Structure formats: structure tokens, C-alpha cells
Amino acid sequence: MSEDFYRIRRLPPYVFAEVNTLKQAARARGDDIIDFGMGNPDQPPAPHILAKMQEAIQNPRAHRYSSSRGIPGLRKALAAYYDRRFNVDLDPEREVIVTLGSKEGLANLAQAISSPGDTILVPNPSYPIHAFGFIIAGAALRYLPSAQTGAAFFEQLKRTVEHAVPKPIAIVINYPSNPTADVVDLDFYGQIVDFCRHHGIYVLSDLAYAEVYFDGNPPPSVLEIPGAKDIAVEFTSMSKTYNMPGWRVGFAAGNPDLIAALGRVKSYLDYGAFTPIQVAATAALNGPQDCVEEMRQLYAGRRDILVHGLRSAGWDCPLPPATMFVWAPIPPAFRDMGAIGFTKALLAEADVAVSPGVGFGEHGEGFVRLGLVENSQRIRQAVRNIRGFLQHYHAVGDLAVAS
């Protein structure tokens, strides 16, 4: 009967579900699966963050309902972060709100600003909530190729807006990108802001991987562009930067009208994150940042082991400049299998789990995403398993027989 529900009907079958079922079955058989499938940090938060959490939880008043907008200290800490990191001035009262992770924040904003029939521009491939948050809200989508960031992107953007009926109300951008790991510069954001201000389109930026970069060039914020706050809001997260994914703390910052709309919806949906979590998140933003550099070094080391290992095994993968993911094209001999077929083969034959690129949109076909969430020893083992897999099967027909 659930298929009769309008919003459920708009959601396609979850692409990752079949792979997750196979992964669970393999583990039930006792197979040692090396899992690169989910971007789930495997390290704990820094000791000073945990200590502040333990301290805050002892306060008897901390167990009451919290604030849906976020405690004042945390909103001020996020504003201070934007000031020192991006030289962007934010009003903690009007231009900052705390969310239950950036994913929930994006979904709640979709509910706040869109209605059935509205058109939203979203990247493809992209993190699923970028599209499905608006699909759940009833909006119509127009896709933009997230792998393009230069003149071709803006030409596609121009054509899409000219031919979209009705005119798009918002565009979602995500750099550094999940899943492709692409990055952009301030010139790109400047063109986005100029174009969207001219056409009256809101800009919704997902900057969850702002601190996960490896080339010495910190990714910029769209809010650095003069006038961006007139049309833009940006989502950030504690999950990857401070190894706090299960704590569910994120932020939206920027345009006060969008922040107010998000706050209005949130006031009906949640009472905010558990207060001690918000207190610890404040300590993370305001405290020593050595742990952030350690996080970058950890992922950089894992990235190098994985990419160089796969290249030596005959799988040509690009070296991502940012994020905790490798976006890898399927080796030519196996492309006819498609992303899901190749993912299944890796799981069955190499005991390695990855995410099929098509799960991030149809333009992700031909790719798989590998998360840097296993330790170096496990990554080396995965490379050995994959090398054996690639050497054993030289043609798609052999794989078809094996599967």
C-alpha cells in the first residue's frame, strides 16, 4: 500500500540497496569485506572535543530540550570560523542556523522553499539528497553535469535556464564534489553569483568537504563573492572535518531570508541537537585545529596508497585533489557490465565493496566511488585483491560466466 503514497512514488528504487544486501550476505557467510562503500569516517573526534562532551553531559540542565536554531555559542563559533577561514562576516542571529547535519538541513530547506511544479537545478552526478530532497518536496529537477566546471558548464546552465518552464527558483552546487572530488575557484563562484542574481535564482552551496583538501589550496566559499548573501546560502558540516558523522551537527549560513525559512520549518520538526553535542561542537570550532590537519594527512596518505596501488594493478584512477573519495572510471575491459555489475563483481570476486556511480545519477554510469575509510593495511589488502581480480578476468564474457 505504501506505493500509493504520492511522495514515495516519486522515489526510485534505492540503487545502493541491492549492493548493500549482497554485502551483508557476504559478511554473514564469513567473508572479510573491505568496505569503501560509504563516506563514514573511521576515526574518533579529537580528545578535547570528547572531553568537552563528557563535561557538558554532567550538567543536569543539559538534558532538557535544546534550541532548534542552535545554541548561541555554536552559531557564534560558526560565524567566527567563516571570518578567519573565508574572511566572510556573518550575523550569528540572522545569517547562521545549526542543522542536524548538512543532509537534513538541505532536505528541510527544500521543504521550506519549493512546492510541486517548481524547478530546481541540481548537479549530476551528485550526493543523493541534492536531488531527492527536492523530489520529496514535489519539485521538478533539471540536471547539470557536475563534471564540467568551465565554459561548457556555464553554456549548459544558460541553455537550461532559457528552456526551463517554469524558470528555476534555485540551483544546488557542491564543491569539493561528492562524488567526483572536483574543485572550483572563486572565479567559478563569481560567475555563478552574477548569473543567478541576474535571473533571480537562489544558490544553495554544499561545502561539507571544505577542509578535506590535499593540494595546499583551501577550497573557497561562494559567500566570499561580494553580494552572494543576497541570493546564496551555504551548508557545512562537522562530520568530515572533525570526525563527528554520528553526532549530526551541521550549519546553514548566508541569505537571511533563506535562513529564516529554514528556521521556520525546523521549528516544527526538531528541537535541535542534544545540547552537550552542540557544546562539544563549539569547542571543536573554537579550539585547537591540529586535529583538522591530522585528518587531512590521514586521508592524503590513504588516497596515495589506494590510487597508486590501483594504477600499479592496471586500473587507471585520477588522484583526487579533495574529499575523502576516489571517483574511478571502470576499467575499459569491464565497462559493458555497467557500474552496478562491476560493483557486484568486485564484491564477489575481490571482497571489496564500492559504490556504483549510477547511484549518484545517470551521469555517474561508468564510474565507481571508493571512500578512504579503511586503514592503510586494509587498503593494501584491497589493492592486492583487486589486482588478482583484474589479472584473472580479461574480458566481460568471463565475468558474465562467473557471476
Quick take:
This protein is α/β, with parallel strands linked by helices.
Please describe what this structure looks like:
The two termini are 34 Å apart. This protein has a seven-stranded mixed β-sheet with strand order 2-8-7-6-5-3-4, with helices on both faces. It has a three-stranded antiparallel β-sheet with strand order 9-12-11. The protein is of the alpha/beta class and 403 residues long. The chain is built from 14 helices and twelve strands. Helices cover 45% and strands 13% of the residues. The protein has two domains: 155 residues, Aspartate Aminotransferase, domain 1 (Alpha-Beta Complex); 239 residues, Type I PLP-dependent aspartate aminotransferase-like (Major domain) (Aspartate Aminotransferase, domain 2, 3-Layer(aba) Sandwich), CATH 3.40.640.10. Helix 8 links the parallel strand 5 and strand 6. The chain is globular, with a radius of gyration of 21 Å. The C terminus is likely disordered.
Task: Please tell me the CATH architecture of the largest domain by its name.
Answer: 3-Layer(aba) Sandwich
Shape: globular
Count of runs of 4 or more consecutive helical residues: 14
- Calculate Rg over CA atoms: 21 Å
Tally of distinct domains: 2
CATH class term of the largest domain: Alpha Beta
**CATH homologous superfamily of the largest domain - what is it?**
Type I PLP-dependent aspartate aminotransferase-like (Major domain)
CATH topology (level 3) name of the largest domain: Aspartate Aminotransferase, domain 2
Low-confidence blocks of residues:
399-403
Q: Strand arrangement, largest sheet?
A: 2-8-7-6-5-3-4
Q: What series of H and E elements makes up the topology?
A: HHEHHEHEHEHEHEEEHHHEHEEEHH
Helix proportion of residues, in percent? 40-55%
- Rounded to the nearest angstrom, the distance between the terminal CA atoms is 34 Å
Going by helix content, strand content and strand pairing, the class is: alpha/beta
